[in-house]
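Regression check, D-glutamic acid case 277:
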Amino acid sequence: MQAKHPIGVFDSGYGGLTVLREIVKTLPDHDFLYMGDNARAPYGPRSFETVYQYTLEAVQWFFDQGCELVILACNTASAKALRTIQQRDLPQMAPGKRVLGVIRPTTEIIGRFSHTGKVGILGTAGTVKSNSYRLEIARFFPEVEVFQEACPMWVPLIENNEYQHAGADYFVEKDIRALLGQCREMDTILLACTHYPLLLPKIRQFVPENITLVTQGEIVAHSLSVYLKNHPEIAEKCGRQSKRIFYTTDDVTDFDNHASYFFGDSIASRHLDLGRK
Ligand code: DGL
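Current build output:
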């Protein structure tokens, strides 16, 4: 019988857990292997080359663990590394394996949330500078106008466990004001960083009620379930015993505390060193 392997889920740190939580709700019997590169987060301010290099190392690690399918549950990695990995590296590294990101499934449907056709994007500096959202949304919804604001302090606040404290309010309000100031008719704001749902209660405080806030977890989860239905050759290699294994490149206790917020208190993550072979 053919061996079955978990689906890999990758993020620079804790953010991908907001996506994995929704994926697990949608595909509860599948096996998942999560890895957060917390030791090297945030990825947002790093160069294209660095994010690409870190992401490629992560993808190689997932493949070494046997994963046939890896989800980059990180917008920055999806924006800066995914295309090169899919087009240049995968055909040599592992032609039968697949790597998917979070930008495509989101941009395919984001226009449906907006009546005014004015959509705001909040993301890391890397995601915003890459212009990936603007370019991809233009393909699916050419009539939609996109406004973007980078929020460079948000991921560090989350990775340093400061996101529930009052100090975070300053940066959240400042960046939201800057985005809202770009267009009065904006009626939809996408949290285009998988860390940001952790700040949702604070974000909501500063965003008027009439504006729809869109998070990516459910969107990515739905898209993955459709992908597996459409790709039985990948789906049949995926394990389905509800196993969940977590790795972090940093401190396991910190990681377990964060992960328990999403998945209950039974998380016992393992440590790995990436890029130090
Ligand atoms: N969760 C990552 C994203 O979606 C955060 C990137 C970072 O580490 O700055 O972009």
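Comparison notes: The chain has two domains: 7-101+218-271, 104-215. The pocket of D-glutamic acid is lined by residues 11-13, 15, 41-44, 74-76, 124, 127, 155, 193-195 (CB under 6 Å). No diff flagged against the previous build.
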